[in-house]
Recover the amino acids of this structure.
């Protein structure tokens, strides 16, 4: 079995045409199909079949179950979803189309993983936190939701695909923590 790597990204918004207007400066695509294809291409350029792809919320906006299945299966890697505001319904339940996907790790609101050569603790959430577990012991925090509007602070950073250094695809822990305190 090849070495398994972990990748992180947020805010793919598959099937979300309106985001092309609301985030026009960071999503320079003419159509949602172009955006979705570009994201899938970037994921598949970086991620191998056995790698773990952590998606930190807002996976898709589409309610078309067949389209969600298509996008999900077009992405390489073993997928884990940290739930975002567009992944849940107004009652707090996971949207049916998203819940029906064969996630390798069941979707959760937040989770911790370890990554990097030292086994650093990494707190994953769709939302930015002012503090997070083990923050004072060197833990990192990756989040989405803000579409690059919140600056990276200390060991906390936005991993949304529309943040400039993300280039519409996932990044490894080493990529994301380079230059952090």
């Amino acid at each position: 079995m090849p070495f398994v790597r972990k990748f992180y990204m947020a805010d793919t918004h598959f099937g979300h045409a309106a985001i092309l207007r609301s985030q026009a400066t960071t999503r320079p695509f003419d159509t949602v199909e172009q955006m979705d294809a570009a994201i899938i291409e970037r994921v598949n350029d970086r991620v191998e079949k056995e790698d773990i792809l952590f998606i930190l919320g807002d996976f898709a906006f589409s309610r078309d179950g067949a389209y969600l299945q298509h996008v999900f299966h077009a992405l390489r890697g073993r997928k884990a979803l940290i739930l975002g505001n567009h992944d849940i319904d107004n009652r707090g339940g996971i949207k049916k189309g998203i819940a029906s996907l064969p996630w390798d790790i069941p979707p959760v609101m937040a989770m911790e993983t370890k990554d990097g050569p030292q086994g650093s603790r990494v707190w994953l959430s769709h939302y930015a936190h002012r503090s997070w577990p083990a923050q004072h012991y060197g833990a990192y925090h990756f989040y989405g939701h803000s579409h690059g509007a919140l600056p990276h602070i200390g060991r906390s950073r936005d991993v949304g695909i529309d943040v400039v250094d993300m280039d519409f695809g996932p990044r490894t822990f080493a990529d994301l923590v380079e230059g952090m305190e």
